Amino acid sequence: MFFTRRSRFTVKLRVVAVVTGAVTAAALFAGSPANAQAKPYDHQDPYKSGCGNSARVVKSAKIKSRANGTVGTIKLMWSGKCKTNWTEIKVGTTMSGTISVYARDGRSDSFTYKAGNGGRHWGDMIWANNMCAWGSASVKWGGGRGGQNGSGTTGQACR
Length: 159
Known about the structure:
alpha+beta; five-stranded antiparallel β-sheet; 10 strands; 2 helices; single chain; Immunoglobulin-like; DUF2690; signal; DUF2690 domain-containing protein
């Protein structure tokens, strides 16, 4: 095939443009929300992973029922080793409900728990290094009617 100096230059420009476009697309994909979901330790049990061994409480609040007052406590936990947050609660042994943890970038995790376990329950982790996170929980007992329910939310903790 015969190339003139001008046509070889045009081919080189096209190759550079294609490579530049591919690199730009890869960079955009790396920062996309779908890729933001793939964080270390997301949706893993903090105690099975070993992250819970070095954890500390960074925020706490009461779980309250409109009819029954305080029915438990909620804690936002932080593992400096794993750079993760999760939510733990302590409620009555006959209570069930949902525990959630949220990160400022939009990721979250929810865990549904059943009565038992001495009333101590925790959800899975989300990675939250250099960002704010918070937790929430809902509880119910005796069918959840007549005020037999409650909820609580921690404040935000930014690490």
